[in-house]
Amino acid sequence: MNRDAAYWIDHLSLSAHPEGGYFKETYRSEEWVELPRFSGRRPVSTAILYLLPQGSVSQWHRIKSDEIWHFHAGEDLRLDVIMRDGLHSVLRIGPEGPFQAVVPHGSWFSAIPEGAFALVGCTVAPGFDFADFEMARIEELVERFPHLSQVIRATSFD
Q1: Of the candidates 55, 56, 79, 105, which lies 20 to 30 Å from 36 by C-alpha distance?
Q2: Where does 12-137 have alpha helices with state H?
């Protein structure tokens, strides 16, 4: 059976995500933590399923928590990450492995499927809250990291 992106979006009841792609929250811890970098309590952990079809991108953004990406189906997913110190790294998860990658909190990142689609999971700890989500303004990101302007522009759809 050919399970394409449309199949998974329908089968998993995924919804459009503000950064691009499709998602569904699958877990939200009932326990809470308070840490100085957050403006209040956060669940200990959250998890989503996330699908990026070919021709789409997870726009540059960052969150205040660590994010673990888990590969589930489809083809490789490329994650471009700008660490807090300005260093750029490329992480890939996919069928040949590795099956997980970590984006450290506060890092700017973008994701692009390297084939027809990538179905992944994202586990966030402390748990995700939209109050901690910041979409990049591309020109400001380029101004802050001029040495990465080609990477930033190549992995963003304006």
Answers
A1: 79
A2: none
Phi-psi category of residue 97: left, alpha or beta, with phi > 0 → left and psi -120 to 50 → alpha: left
- What does the alpha-carbon distance between residue 54 and residue 148 come to, in Å, rounded to a whole number? 24
DSSP string, 91-127: EEESTTS--EEEE-TT-EEEEEESSSEEEEEEEEESP
Domains along the sequence of the chain with CATH: 20-32+41-154 (2.60.120.10)
Q: Which helix (H) or strand (E) holds 38?
A: none
pTM of the predicted protein model: 0.94
